[in-house]
Amino acid sequence: MTDNAIEISGLSKTYAGAGSEPPKQALKNIDLTIPRGSIFGLLGPNGAGKSTLINILAGLVVKSEGSVKIWGFDQDVNPRQSRAAIGVMPQELNLDPFFTPRGSLDVQAGLYGVPRSERRTDEILDMIGLADKGEAYARNLSGGMRRRLLLGKALVHSPRILVLDEPTAGVDIELRQMLWRNVRKLNEDGMTIILTTHYLEEAEEMCDEIAIINQGEMLIRDTTARLISLIDTKTLVIKPDDTPPADIPLPPDAELERRSGGILAINYAKTKTSPGDILAALRDAGVTIADVSIEEPHLEDVFLDLTRNAQTRAA
Known about the structure:
InterPro entries: AAA+_ATPase, ABC_transporter-like_ATP-bd, ABC_transporter-like_CS, ABC_transporter_ATP-binding, P-loop_NTPase. This protein is an alpha/beta fold. It has helices at 50-57, 79-84, 101-111, 121-127, 143-155, 173-188, 200-206, 224-229, 275-284, 299-314; strands at residues 4-15, 24-35, 39-43, 65-70, 73-74, 86-89, 161-165, 192-196, 209-214, 217-223, 233-240, 255-258, 264-269, 289-295.
């Protein structure tokens, strides 16, 4: 048995054009493996192909080329087993307004062939914080409660893999924290998590590894720490003792940003300029330093840098 939860090879998807429009290639020869037991981030701008990839994994979209294995089951050879191994929490609030949360979970479990004696409806309702709303109609639930119910529906068949498609888009802080507590607990219990999100700080905090796709192509895949280390720029943050002079000559590769409160933020390339060189230049300019710190790059910097370079090449 493979150590990978997901194995994708040469995956492509082309949608037929409407009317006179040309066909659109949403995915282009994607190769990707996702280890079992990991929390894996799938990032990319709008229209990058993330939703198409997720829908192929869920069995909702038919691929054009390539192979997909989910928990060792080839989608083409064992479609039922591969679909049973994965649960998807979609971004859209697609709930029947006339079902209660309990009814929704039972119906979903029935669709997956889970016998009544093996259903975990009460357990799931408690986990997602809807135990006291089990008999309320979905149409009367708040937006946050509906999103919790989507998570519950994705878990009714005890999948090995859980896909979260923009799970915290537009939700409040309390719901976001509750969701991440549940996700961490599920992962600790052995479930593989695949996350797409626009909140890059979430991916940076939650994910072991990250893949970035743009315009249907895989740009990069690596551990979160190594992706962040790709950015050469750091920021030296200086708090002066008094008002700094208007003119501060700095090394050629350093750029000065003046922040509120008299704070000086100097961006520099760590492979070209050292903090010592910058501090020496500040002293020479007559800046008396009260405090100094260094800001490290974030995943957002990597994401923007990679997607910007890809768009430049495409142009």
